[in-house]
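Page 47, continued from p. 46.
Same chain as before, 648 aa.
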Amino acid sequence: MRLGERLDTARRRGFVGRESELAAFERLLDPSLPAQVLLVYGPGGVGKTALLHQYGWRAAAEGRKVIWLDGHEIEPTQTAVLATLGIANLDELATMPGLVLLIDTLELLAPLERWLRRDLIPALAGDALAVLAGRDRPPPVWRADPGWRELVDIVQLGNLSHPEGRRLLELRGVPEADQIPALDFTRGHPLALALVADVAAQRRFSAVSAHQVMGALLKSFVDTVPSPLHQQALEACAQVLATTEPLLAALLDLRDAAELFAWLRDLSIVEYGSRGLFPHDLARDALGAELRWRDPDGCEEIRQRAAAYYRQQFGVARPAVQQLILLDFVYLHRDTSVLGPFVAGYPQTGALSAHPALPAELSLFVSWVREHEGEESARICSSWLERQPGSAVAIRSSEGVTVGFYQLISVDASARDDPAMARVPGRGQMVRFWMDGERYQEPSPVQLFITVQLFRSYLQAACPDYTLLTFASAEPFAEGCAHVDFHRMPEADFTVGGHGYAVFGHDWIAVPPLAWVSRLAERDALISSPTSLLDEESFAAAVKSALRALGRAGGLRDSPLLASMLARGQESSLRAVLKEASDQLAASPRDRRLHRALHHTFVQPAETQAAAAELLGLPMTTYRRHLAAAEARLTEILWQRELDARSP
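Result:
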């Protein structure tokens, strides 16, 4: 067997999926059909070339003559194309019955696009088949022309399905334990899966190895762009949820972005919907990761311009549009805050929708509450559904299957059958029940979608005095709630069926919706700005302030230390760093007495400093001297760690 034959065999063996695309091609091979044209497009690395190889093998198996033209291998001239075809002029094409012409990397033959469409392809024999594959969306003329409209099929090639992706990883020898994280990371993109398989052959796939995969993907997506400004437009588009022409102009600080917007719209890696343009998920990930690594200042500048644009638009928008602008603000938080795990999954929610609950769904909601929270909660849920039947919202899949729900009730102190109403004041709202039908309150696309719907509800014209959120456990949600200005309210906690429920709340009178949105943007800027690193004096003052806020829930959410390399914007990371430094004091015989003063003052504080001194058996002056020394030593440890983290 020749090397080329072995290569073809390996390619066929490693090919998975694309059943519908292959079936469509098989139908077009019917010799009784007239000439047909198949236009295949999709982003770099999605598998267009691999699919064309399959087309070629299947056509050859049917006895058809196959000719392959690759834009990578020939000059974009008529002479070069004719030479590759082995003909002197186009008239000779009519003497090739049953020809299957495969043209790959069509975007590199762009100067010939008009000639291919008007001269070469019409010159094919009446039973020929032409397949043109490229990254760019086919121009509208293929559909607008009455003649071509009857002869052309357009196929947009997307990512592999979850089972297909697993099969590809299995064929490439990726261990089963690595397959799920690899699929989550790649979202089924074939080139990404292949790159992950290459990494897995050397070491276990992880977030560390993801960076090199992202770099290779970015090169495949945008190996050429017309100018640096076009590159900036693509990078800016990847930073926001949806890009309109005015927003693009604001992101790039231009008066007119019409030409750049039109260019973006025609890219195969960019889709468009009712709110504007948006890149495919994996392209967005690759572009965002590259920009954050290569130009963090430029990335932050785009984010700041986006936030300023949203604030300006919010002030003049209708309430319904304000709800959408809030989603745009939330999306800006996806990389630098605790909202990241929720917002990063936003595209996964595209198949979900929210609807007022139907009567037939109410019993399903009650059964879910019974399963996850018990009989007593189910009884209370049923009571609220009777008392406020319009409070329940059903979450449905694209197939119309009910997959989750939430119930946003108006607080009613007269509802004495519900312990949740025992200590809630005034005119407010409470998210009394919410859940994914299967996963309850665990992170999931349904949970994210509910979060988004609730964010929208906070901007309704009839704003309540406050909104309360209930959770089966406070710990998983404490940091996220604090970041979005929903504060822990232990006085409103309640118990049902022997299980305690945690309550978080936001006061809309104290911080109304527009101020709330601005606060989120400012807070995100604080923790994400690469220019906000503290000098030594400011760092020491921030440590002192953080120690005094350590005992309060959410007390560190606005700490300047969140901008440090140690915390990287995460309150949980900051708490962990403070604890580690404190433990380091405890482990040193020289610093152990300092640790005790620190511990009884800030970590597990006594009621007063006098009580702490008494607990330590020290005179007040000695206690204060130990405490000052402890703060200084802790600051010294943290500052050295910060300097180490800033070093290349």
